[in-house]
Design a protein that fits this description.
With about 240 residues, the chain is α+β, with helices and mostly antiparallel strands. The protein folds into two domains: about 70 residues; about 120 residues, OB fold (Dihydrolipoamide Acetyltransferase, E2P) (Beta Barrel). About 35% of the residues lie in helices and about 20% in strands. α1 packs antiparallel against α5.
């Protein structure tokens, strides 16, 4: 067998091959990281509910998706609403209500979804829970609003992102933490809002990306060798 590599082509292809392989390895590392993150989130969701004091002691990332138990009262007169779309493509709203604990601290509780016809609290009076309430929900640090997020409808308290800081400012509230507690699926009178909307759904296409990079690396090697063979620089001596 003989092989006489073309210098310029080889100098071009070797770093490119190394880069393609490195990208594939990096995507495999990202895959293992993402799988670990999803497993951690699911473990948090399955753990016993924590108290507010205990969860506030955790680092923000470690507190994410943990369950928390709260006792206090809803401030129903200060509901706000997050516009969203259901998996079926229908419009809906998350009902977000300030919740005052015994010691006066406040948190925002996402009580769940309502259809547009029930956004007005007067259309669902049974849902306006009064007196002492026990709430179990998921601790969520919301993402910041995006550049293209529409401005809120302050008059109707309708928001198009989980802008906790904006809602707190609009309502002149200082929450104990800049988070949303997403209520579990415990039924409420009248059936709305419907809680239990928390879903761990992280995009995980890293295996596909890794396969693509490795396939490109293999294709580069094949093209490189075929070209050399066509130029009479690769073959078997007889």
């Amino acid at each position: 067998m003989y092989f006489r590599p073309l210098p310029r082509l080889t100098v071009f292809c070797v770093p490119l091959l190394a880069a393609l392989i490195a990208l594939g390895v990096w995507q495999m590392q990202r895959l293992h990281w993402k799988l670990g993150l999803i497993a951690e989130m699911n473990a948090h969701l399955q753990a016993a509910p924590m108290s507010l004091d205990d969860i506030l002691k955790l680092p923000q990332q470690d507190a994410q998706y943990r369950r928390v138990a709260l006792d206090g009262r809803f401030e129903n007169a200060r509901e706000s609403y997050f516009f969203t779309a259901t998996d079926e493509g229908y419009s809906a709203y998350h009902v977000v209500t300030p919740f005052e604990l015994h010691d006066g601290r406040l948190l925002f509780v996402d009580r769940g979804l309502v259809p547009p016809a029930l956004r007005n609290p007067q259309s669902r009076p049974a849902s306006l829970l009064k007196g002492e309430q026990h709430v179990v929900g998921v601790w969520r640090v919301p993402d910041a609003p995006g550049f293209f997020t529409p401005a809120p409808d302050l008059r109707n308290r309708v928001w198009y992102s989980h802008n906790i800081e904006g809602i707190a400012k609009a309502l002149a509230i200082k929450p104990a933490a800049p988070v949303i507690v997403e209520a579990d699926a415990t039924p409420v009178p009248g059936g709305w809002p419907r809680g239990g909307q928390t879903v761990v759904s992280l995009p995980n296409d890293h295996l596909q990306y890794a396969f693509t990079w490795f396939l490109m690396a293999a294709a580069l090697v094949v093209i490189y060798l075929v070209y050399h063979r066509a130029q009479g620089r690769l073959g078997f001596r007889r």
